[in-house]
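Friendly challenge for the regulars: who can give me the structure tokens for this chain first? No prize, just bragging rights.
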Amino acid sequence: MSNNLCILAFGLCLLVQVHIAKSREYGEALTKSLLFYEAQRSGKLPPDQRVQWRGDSALHDGKTGGIDLVGGYYDAGDNVKFGFPMAYTVTMLAWSVVEFGNNLKARNEYWNALKAVKWGTDYMMKAHPEPNRILEGKFSENGNLGQMKNSAEQYICNCIQKGYSNVQRTSGGLLWFLQWSNLQYVTSASFIITAYADYLSKTQKNIQCASGRVGPNDLMAFAKSQVDYMLGSNPKNMSYMVGFGSNYPKQVHHRGASIVSIKKDSRPMSCQQGFEEWFHKNQENPNVLTGAIVGGPDQSDQYTDARDNYEQAEPSTANNAPLVGVLARLAA
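First reply, four minutes later:
Bragging rights claimed.
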């Protein structure tokens, strides 16, 4: 009897240690996922800027139109600020803070998350000249909550492979939506599944899918499988978060990361010079874009680490934003 108890105690201790180790990994990924936003900042950088290879940029945006549009985020790798991707990014970051605020606090990332939200919202307020209008875009306030809830649940069922029209998956188990930057859709799906898992847990409810009822544990297990894939548990044993693990993309499609920092070489660099001297250089980027989620592998779980492979190698703020909340939840 005592031997059985010892074996049981040893097994429990081993499980606890495994959980702690995985929690630390998710915590590290969470920290890096937020650090990425500091590399995407446009405008005058603050004194507490942690990504030191970046410098001030685009300090005259909006000047010709008589409006201050300095700030915000470059949406991806090409130094462009797009309104809708930035709005989505800020929305998902803010939702992560609301939904997983306690988890963020437990990992000492709550204020970094709020700073990431504020950097985007400060810019969006500048670009909001009148109610219901952001620059030239408009939005509607119409919507049926019951219908949206049903659609969300059916979408979740399809993602976890228990619906009427299941989302495709790669052989390695990754959800497959589109060839170009597939991981932005995977991170968004993972967020919805994770947030809904917590809702089901709090309300003690399940979802009725075509293949049967599913509960919060089923949803969390699936979301975890997607995150684990992105962080290296995949056929290539490759992390698709830059700077996480030892095997990650080294030639990320990103102008700032692929050209030597102005703090190391102060020579002016024109766009054409950037292409000639850096873009086509078959070497690792001189600056590590820590925390960036790239576009990801193809439908066959393959990835080509080349700077001109923008469909797979380009990161974006929209890729990372939904993942912040999921990582915070998994790191708990």
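The first strand starts at residue 133 and ends at 134. The radius of gyration is 21 Å. Your move, everyone else.
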